[in-house]
Amino acid sequence: MALAVQLMLSGDGDLGEIVALSLRVSLTATALACLVGLPIGAVVAISRFRGRGAVLILMNALMGLPPVVVGLLVYLHLSRSGPLGFLGLLYTPTAMIIAQTILITPIIAALSRQVLEDLHAEYSEQFRSFCLTRRQTVSALLWDGRYSLLTVGLAGFGRAVAEVGAVIIVGGNIDHLTRVMTTAIALETSKGDLALALALGIVLLVIALGINAAVQGIRMTAVQQAHV
Amino acid sequence: MSDVALMTGLPEIARVRAASMTPMEASDVVLKLGGATVLDGVTFRLRPGGCTVIMGPNGAGKSLLLKLLHGLIRPTSGRVEWNGKPATEVTSRQSLVFQKPVLLRRSVMANLDFVLRARGADRSRREELLAHVGLEHKAEQPARLLSGGEAQRLAMARALATEPDVLLLDEPTASLDPASVLAIEKIMADARDRGVRTILVTHDPGQARRMADEVIFLHGGQVAEHAAASDFFSGPQCQVALDFMNGRIVV
């Protein structure tokens, strides 16, 4: 334990590198998942169509995608013999970003659908009176729901930064290249280097706490302005 | 062009445009919701100009009638037509102010900007609109923190931002204090005087007296009386309206 704290305080180069890559991969994946997932959630939230119930069930079910299965699917596509093998992306951070994006897009879509549907229930009559187009409705809902959607993004990021199954399959846990916090913890623990594993574990917790606190702070300000 | 010229130029345009929306005709309108008949054979005709007040006890179908006129809902049978066009095709030329204003989670100014931008209107008009409803000093404030009266004034400004030919108001001053009621009534009267065809649903007989050029009294989903304001207030022809105006409880 003392060793773990010492590692963190000494600003160990390897540790810093691993943390930075973790954040880069998971934050990029979260941003991409929001870019795709939020509009999907918004459109489903305001639409009424045949088979909507089935779509909702599918969206909710996809939230529980096992990371290893996503990792395997991405691996199959990116491996040398796979359809996208020519891109040479396997065992790169890009592959890890792709896997995590696929993993959390359904989470963002399903949770934002719920948030935005509630908001739309409040706004829909007024919006119809304004004669807004669907595009205007969707963008207004996304903007007015932005503080609630922060929590949705947070849920996605939390899932991405904490998962190990997908990144270890498509990233390969290569030192200085694709080693992130979760894969490093798994490796160091099995090697018996508990100090580094513990240090990484603590960093992971601190990051999770810090980001949650920041989002909470933003939301508190928003509540004061009655924007939530 | 100066603001003064802009302001004096408005009424003529409004009058001409409003004239193209009226007469409005509702013929044999029936509305059934979940098996219950809410409106049962409503027929009336509105001439151009002025303010029509719709009165009646709760559950008479006033608010739903307003939404039918606005084209937000369709009648089960019968027709609602503005100068020959179905109500659902002219929604954009009307504004509806709800009893409880639904304000966006943004600043006062952003609420106005939203409507002006969505409808492709001139955004420089927002200062003029804010001043018109007396909210220019609250422009930067979150709209959700406005008092009830201020929120409804913002809703009025937003409704007028689209330069509607027809203004529909659903109990806009319910549960507001007298000063706020006065402010809202002033804005309504001003719009009416500029030629915006105004249709007001209210429970308040005093407000009806102050605003109405004519009155439609609804009871049990039917038009119990449709009369000029002077005739209606000097003595309603039908018993329910008489009881209602005399402060008796009508169910």
What does the model show?
The complex is a heterodimer of chains A (228) and B (251). Chain A is 79% helix and 0% strand. Chain A has ten helices and no strands. Chain A has helices at 2-9, 13-46, 52-62, 67-78, 93-130, 134-144, 146-162, 165-171, 181-191, 194-224. Chain A is globular, with a radius of gyration of 20 Å. The termini of chain A are far apart. In chain A, 38% of the residues are buried. Chain B has 251 residues and is α/β, with parallel strands linked by helices. Helix content of chain B is 39%, strand content 24%. Chain B contains nine helices and ten strands. Chain B has a six-stranded mixed beta sheet, with helices on both faces. A four-stranded antiparallel beta sheet of chain B has the order 2-1-4-5, with helices on one face. The longest helix of chain B is centred in the first third of the chain and has 19 residues, at 3-21.
Gap between N and C termini of chain A? 42 Å
Strand order of the largest sheet of chain B: 6-7-8-3-9-10
Global Rg of chain B: 18 Å
Rg for CA atoms of chain A = 20 Å
Give the tally of β-strands of chain B: 10
Structural class of chain A: mainly alpha
